[in-house]
């Protein structure tokens, strides 16, 4: 029987206690302030990050995990496992997928499969948790990959609204905005993933209207009555996130809603104040 290790990158923001309980390994992306880089979640917590950006003169940048971190982990896991499944954030917004795939090709004694979640954050975590449950049930890496692909085909959605679009624009992670970027930067567009990339899905003028529109999009899904997994995600807006999650939970008994966060690396690109809702109907 094949023993499968489950690996993710830190942008799935799965808390350490859950990672440990589910045997999930995490490889960290890095956030860079000046010439000091920190492995997010391991060397810089999300709380410390939001404090640091307020105190720092220059805005941080980010980078994918070093190639050697994947290689070292794969080699270590090859002593105890036959196969591994790595689940990364979207390959169109970070080189993490490509780096993991290159390291997978270099390693011997373990068969490493790399899965592109085509999204990030808690939506990525849904794949990781599912894969960890399957590995626990002794499914093979191939069976897990097939299941993850089916989940991706079913549709994983996330809509979010940023307080200041300049962060995403500066980091070059906003697709399709070039033609109307001047006017867009003054708006509160609703952002979403399409074909692995972040696009302004709808142009909206005010924060209030934007959040109401996100709720409306979610209502269209939750209102079907089908069992739905949902998350409210925020960049240092815990009270607003809680209020939104409570509202969803009171309204829909078919929805299992969690509150989650944008950590340092994704927080660098979306900026403090970002809030959104993501969902998946298994
Ligand atoms: C890197 O330096 O490789 C990391 C780049 C990360 C780009 C993040 C762009 C924003 C993603 C928003 C995710 C929202 C999910 C609900």
TrEMBL record:
Keyword Membrane: no
Alphabetical list of PROSITE patterns matching this protein: DEGV
InterPro entries cross-referenced by the UniProt entry: DegV (IPR003797), DegV_C (IPR043168), DegV_domain_contain (IPR050270)
Name of a matching Pfam family: DegV
UniProt keyword Transcription present: no
GO terms for MF: lipid binding
Membrane-spanning parts: none
Keywords: Lipid-binding
Domain of life of the source: Bacteria
PANTHER family for this protein: DEGV DOMAIN-CONTAINING PROTEIN DR_1986-RELATED, FATTY ACID-BINDING PROTEIN TM_1468
Protein name as annotated: DegV family protein with EDD domain
Record organism: Scopulibacillus darangshiensis
């Amino acid at each position: 029987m094949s023993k499968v290790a489950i690996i993710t990158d830190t942008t799935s923001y799965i808390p350490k206690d859950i990672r440990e309980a589910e045997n999930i390994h995490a490889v960290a992306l890095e956030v860079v302030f000046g010439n000091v880089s920190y492995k997010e979640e391991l060397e810089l917590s999300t709380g410390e990050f939001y404090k640091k950006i307020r105190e720092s003169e220059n805005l941080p940048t980010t980078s994918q995990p070093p190639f050697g971190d994947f290689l070292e982990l794969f080699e270590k896991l090859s002593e105890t496992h036959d196969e591994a499944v790595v689940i990364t954030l979207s390959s169109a917004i970070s080189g993490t997928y490509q780096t993991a795939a290159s390291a997978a090709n270099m390693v011997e004694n373990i068969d490493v499969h790399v899965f592109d979640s085509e999204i990030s954050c808690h939506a990525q975590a849904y794949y990781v948790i599912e894969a960890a449950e399957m590995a626990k049930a002794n499914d093979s890496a191939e069976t897990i990959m097939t299941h993850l692909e089916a989940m991706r085909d079913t549709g994983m959605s996330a809509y979010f609204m940023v307080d200041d679009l300049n962060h995403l624009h500066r980091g070059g992670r906003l697709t399709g905005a070039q033609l109307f970027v001047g006017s867009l930067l003054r708006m509160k567009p609703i952002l979403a993933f399409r074909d692995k990339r972040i696009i302004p899905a709808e142009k909206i003028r005010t924060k209030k209207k934007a959040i109401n529109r996100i709720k409306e999009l979610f209502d269209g899904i939750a209102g079907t009555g089908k069992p739905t997994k949902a998350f409210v995600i925020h960049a240092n807006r815990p009270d607003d996130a809680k209020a939104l999650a409570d509202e969803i939970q009171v309204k829909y008994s078919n929805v299992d809603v969690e509150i989650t966060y944008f950590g340092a690396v994704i927080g660098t690109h979306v900026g403090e104040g970002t809030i959104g809702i993501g969902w998946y109907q298994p």
